[in-house]
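Sequence design from tokenized structure. All designs in this work follow the same two-part layout: the structure record, then the generated sequence. An example of the structure record is given first.
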């Protein structure tokens, strides 16, 4: 989108608009007015926090692509939120969630690996001219993004020599289809109890983790003072700064000494930023710093996540589907294959909806949005999304490469 066509380009003004949107959503979602209650019975508040900013971007009011707010939120607020959300977590309890979480994650990976070739094979036979040529090469970058993240996507661009024009189309498909699926997951999260009852899923481990966090909060709750808030900010952004320091050092070092490790995303600064912040947050949960949860540490973390959601939404252009309708159909069919396999396996093994949703988003959205979906179930569950997303970074290049080889064979 050209800056000349954008009404507001000042990031300070854009941040103010996003803050007003979040304020309006939260005010109305907690209102006792009957119309508000009826509306939010069907539409999750979190969904609106990313959908409304996308409308501002789509209609040229703000420039999501040209703004630096997402970079700020993902590099500063995301790691800070990970630290604060993990402060009160019992790591053993998370591991006690059982193998079904991993099963659902790898099912999601498999759905993406086979979903792309199935979509191309099906629609390519109907529209060989539109989906021929190097389209399959571009689709490998979507696979890299949907299994791992941006680093894996960039790796596929180089490995399969993807043309810049095709790459731009694929990024658009990637962002919009992934956000559409995230919207579905957020809606399902608001109906988790209903879905789990229908499938007969055992949610006792999840409830146990929630209850432990809630019990801890109730037992240690007190009226927060200014010094409590200062300590929360000091720990959150102090560790964020340290995580950046480590990432800035270790990523170039690995790239120089062992460049082959790029296939594991180990040369990505963002990968190390997420890993270090999450690890230190978990280590702090075993110290006296855990007491900060009693004065609202996880609430600050959740606030940062909501700001991140708004900045994710402002990058989405809902009108772009008009420019490449067929490629978006391919993306939707691809995501439907992933979703269908996830739902089938979840029903087969009676996995809770939480495992399905977070396992899917850890693949498709990565560390930036997997904790958002996890937190939609309960703030204490956000670290589960992070841990699975980090796993996605590790296998993203392998999975996308295998998907690329299959795409090459079925391309029209």
């Amino acid at each position: 989108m050209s800056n000349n066509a954008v009404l507001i380009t000042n990031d300070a003004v854009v941040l103010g608009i996003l803050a007003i949107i979040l304020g309006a959503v939260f005010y109305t979602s907690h209102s006792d007015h009957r119309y508000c209650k009826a509306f939010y019975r069907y539409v999750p508040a979190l969904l609106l926090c990313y959908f409304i900013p996308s409308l501002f971007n789509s209609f040229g009011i703000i420039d999501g692509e040209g703004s630096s707010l997402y970079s700020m939120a993902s590099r500063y607020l995301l790691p800070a939120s990970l630290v604060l959300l993990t402060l009160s977590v019992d790591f053993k309890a998370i591991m006690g969630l059982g193998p079904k979480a991993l099963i659902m994650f790898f099912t999601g990976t498999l759905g993406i690996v086979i979903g792309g070739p199935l979509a191309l094979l099906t629609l390519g036979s109907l529209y060989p001219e539109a989906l021929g040529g190097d389209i399959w090469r571009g689709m490998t970058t979507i696979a890299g993004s949907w299994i791992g993240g941006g680093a894996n996507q960039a790796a596929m661009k180089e490995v399969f020599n993807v043309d810049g024009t095709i790459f731009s189309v694929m990024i658009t498909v990637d962002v919009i289809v992934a956000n559409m699926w995230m919207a579905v997951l957020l809606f399902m999260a608001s109906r988790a109890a209903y879905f789990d009852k229908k499938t007969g899923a055992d949610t006792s481990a999840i409830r146990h983790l929630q209850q432990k966090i809630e019990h801890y909060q109730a037992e240690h709750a007190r009226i927060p003072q200014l010094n409590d808030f200062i300590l929360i900010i000091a720990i959150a952004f102090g560790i964020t700064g340290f995580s950046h320091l480590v990432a800035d050092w270790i990523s170039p070092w690995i790239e120089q000494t062992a460049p082959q490790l790029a296939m594991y995303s180990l040369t990505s600064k963002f990968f190390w930023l997420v890993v270090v912040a999450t690890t230190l947050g978990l280590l702090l949960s075993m110290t006296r710093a855990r007491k900060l949860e009693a004065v609202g540490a996880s609430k600050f973390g959740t606030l940062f996540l909501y700001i991140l959601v708004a900045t994710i939404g402002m990058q989405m252009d809902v009108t772009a589907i008009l420019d490449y309708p067929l490629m978006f159909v391919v993306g939707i069919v691809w995501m439907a294959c992933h979703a269908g396999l996830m739902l089938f396996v979840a029903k087969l093994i009676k996995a809770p909806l939480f495992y399905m949703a977070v396992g899917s988003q850890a693949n498709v959205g990565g560390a930036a949005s997997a904790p958002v979906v996890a937190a939609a179930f309960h703030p204490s569950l956000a670290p589960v999304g992070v841990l699975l997303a980090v796993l996605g970074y590790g296998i993203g290049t392998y999975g996308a490469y295998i998907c690329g080889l299959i795409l090459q064979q079925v391309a029209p």
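The chain has a mean pLDDT of 84. We note this feature because it recurs in several other targets discussed in the main text.
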